[in-house]
Amino acid sequence: MTALDKAFDVLESLAEHERVTDIATATGLPKSTVHRILRALVDRGFARSDGNGGYLPGPRIFTLAGKVTHRFDPARQAGPALARLRDTTGHTVHFALRTGDEAVYIEKLMGLRPYQMTSRIGMTIDLHSTAIGKAILADQTDDEVTAFCERSGLPRRTPNTRTTPVALLADLAQVRVRGYAVDDEENEAGIVCVGAAVHDHAGRLIGGISVSTLRHEVSTSDAYAFGPTVVAAAREASQSLGAP
């Protein structure tokens, strides 16, 4: 390990531990090394003494976190994962964040096919009839979903839309088992999507990503075959946002 590696390990451990002994145990470093690094962190404002022999995160950590958060762009952070998903499948990729009882597209990567989806960045989508939306709802309890159904009314978008709480809950139960959701012409006739949830640095669900294509290009079994790839991309996107 380099000196920089050791310093980073101590700094990360400081988020969970206060005592030198505990930090040494967590990092596997000698207590003398931990002491030396902590003194340097204190000098730079990244740590501070608690007055009782322990150490706490210093003010510069919060200042730095505030600056980073201000510049933080989820779409940009997840960009490499989205691009790989588009290049792997060849189809259009969307990234949407939940906002209340809807989700809004914050990124769209056009597929490698000679046609364009009508979706656009800034467009809001329903949760009950889209792959991203159902991936989001699957993270909630049945009671929370039932309350959502009452608020939204589950409007019918196509003949395939789940318009009753029973039908939607049955679908979400399968989403939880598979790890991904499928929109089989439920939001727009002729369009099939596969989506998975994305989480933030605290493990909270914030939205989802999806692959979208035309029905005549994929069979139902082909659409489901995209599932594991979409899940892997969603996990990569989540990790790029700091998710554990």
Automatic annotation (TrEMBL):
Keywords assigned: DNA-binding, Transcription, Transcription regulation
Boundaries of every IclR-ED domain copy: 60-243
Chain ranges of the HTH iclR-type domain: 1-59
Taxonomic source organism: Hamadaea flava
Identification of the protein by name: IclR family transcriptional regulator
SMART domains: HTH_ICLR (SM00346)
UniProt entry tagged with the keyword DNA-binding: yes
Recorded superkingdom: Bacteria
Pfam families in the record: HTH_IclR, IclR_C
Transmembrane segments annotated in the record for this chain: none
Keyword DNA-binding attached: yes
